[in-house]
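note to self — DONT lose this again. spent like an hour looking for the file last time. sequence + predicted structure for the chain T wanted, 134 res
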Amino acid sequence: MVGFSAGARVSLSVAEPRSFELLEPPSKLRFRAAVAFYPPCKAAGAAPPDVPALIFIGALDEWTPAVECTTKIAGWRNDGPPVELIVYPGAYHGFYYPHLQPGMTMFDHWLEYTGEAADNASRRLQHSLDRHLK
């Protein structure tokens, strides 16, 4: 599961333990990995993902601050699947989208493409999917 911003919140939600049991009727579906680009980590569940998770966020993102992801991950136990947080210095919310060049304000938040961060995230995303999805 790969999601961006609000969709990244969905990525983390479906990675929570027993997330598909909440459906009516309960589902046997499972994702094998979760990737979240600039998620609102403050809204993530109290339980850590039960699949490997990769989170990308910009250090200058004030819409979904990186510190909230750092805090959330620190509160999760370390004995489950790996959760990797990549924080890009100098990057804002939306750093992955080339059409956000030059940057712009949306809902009072600055969004801006950062090519170096986007390229690095693309490589890490591909590597993570290759590793976890084989």
